[in-house]
Protein 1
Amino acid sequence: MRPLKPLALALFMTALSAVAGSAEPSLVIVEQHGCVYCERWNAEIAPAYPKTAEGKFAPLVRADLREGPPDGVTYTRRVVFTPTFVLIENGQEQARIEGYPGEDFFWPLLTQMLTENTEFAPGAASDAIGK
């Protein structure tokens, strides 16, 4: 059983550093317990998100409002509202969406944020299931 512990720790640390310090973009959702709009986003968007071009380009990372940013991530300013969606690249905030305006507005706002701040190129692939 002992050999598995170092291996498990190594895998965890690799996964953590891959998300937090990666040059690849990620989308941090800052949530808090009892947030009705967080719950709506989780019901309406979260199941489809990883299947979309946006979700594949900027994988989702979850963070609790009261715990601050994930390790290796720096926000440009304090997060006050939940949910807040923070686009991260190289561990630094590039842009954010504050609040959840509903499914019909979230996707265009996310696509615009990705297009304006990264190399994301929307196309036919962004018309994924659930959108």
Note: Strands lie at 26-31, 60-64, 84-89, 92-98.
Protein 2
Amino acid sequence: MIKISNSITILSHEIEIQFIRAQGAGGQHVNKTSTAVHLFFDIHASTSLSAFLKSKLLALSDHRISKSGKIIIKSQGSRSQDRNREVALKQFTELLQESNKVARKRIATKATYGSKMRRLDKKNQQGKRKTMRKKVDF
């Protein structure tokens, strides 16, 4: 089980982890060991997530969420399989925590009397400065 927050825990059987060969340089070691990690999570098939959280996840514009509703995270930064698994799981939990946040409602405020007066004074000064630059008529 992976604990996302106090109210959300993901069952381990819902997450599929595959180990594949990593890309890039690395010598002979990279050609014979599967250290990169692919983490798969199906949002639609999950029983751990609420309908609200599922809809918020699907609405995110994240490249790790496919159109079919699956989260696919690839981690290949380390040479260690365990470290790559930890990084992938950390990214997964951060993605779910980010989608679980509720945006604060903005409270409209009014400009203070002093700020209005400062703005008008500055505007007046700028206008005077521009009139001083005009051509003088005799």
Note: The mean pLDDT is 88.
Protein 3
Amino acid sequence: MSFFPAALDNLVEKFASLPGVGFKSAQRLAFYILSLPEGEAKDFADAIYEARNSVRCCSVCQNLTDTDVCAICRSPARNAKLVCVVQSPKDVAAIERAREYNGRYHVLHGVISPMNHIGPDDIRVKELVDRVAQGDIEEVIMALNPDTEGETTAKYISRLIKPFGVKVTRLAHGLPAGASLEFVDDATIGQAIDGRQEM
């Protein structure tokens, strides 16, 4: 038996269905929304509705945008011959924060994961192959997570696009800055040794 109205219980359930939000956090969020002045609560609801209806995938790179082609793909300052392949739009944001990369992107919206019944046709691999086939791209950087699914996806894509004469590279793996060797796992140390560079 609930102590609260059905509408409040429903709101808590909706917040609790979000990734990383537990029941107590969902309850806190629901109570916060109810405490907002009516105008602010409406603005919040309108922002969700507007984002859901106006944000879509860029027709070139598959990143999120509210236009047909995103700002990165439209920018003449970006190197169109260099494409960084990432798993999700959040990865684009992470790379952009570093301010070191000046190429373009391709967002897969997932990785190959047979355990989760996700195959190549379930992610945006075909769109990447079509871009590479046009002949304007010289290098594709695989910036996928260094886990089993990421490595499988990177190798699969690499086999598909290498016949086009495109250079395929991957992000360096190894020790994070400021790490202490005694706390780093064996696989990471191995990757750091394999990826060592001359000083």
Note: The longest strand covers residues 79-86.
Protein 4
Amino acid sequence: MTAQKGSAFLLKITDGQDPATYQTVAGLRTTQMSINGDAVVVTHKESGGWRDLLSGAGTRSVSVSAAGIFLGSEAENTIRAHALAGTIDDYELSFEDGSKLRGRFLVQRLDYAGDFNGERNYTMQLESSGAVLPA
């Protein structure tokens, strides 16, 4: 196996049309995804002192963090509108090997920063709402 390029790890947002097409959120320099799961412990006397977990139970979620340079793209403006309104929308995570994950996400945090004589940058945190599945 060869290493995959970080630049090919893309965050995309739906255009809101039917059928949906996804627009890349431009200007991202860093994208990170975490898959989280809360275990349901079913340990009992006959577990022999070892913890037993219930497969398929508990709460699963996906968190996405991203940071980049603000370019004022339509996708960035849509994300800002969702952050201000607290609305959930469809997103896609795309990887270099062609695999994709799609799900509904809430913009939990959106930060802007800029230095005098420098570009404006932003960071954001997305949290899944519902299933995140391969596309």
Note: The first strand starts at residue 10 and ends at 14.
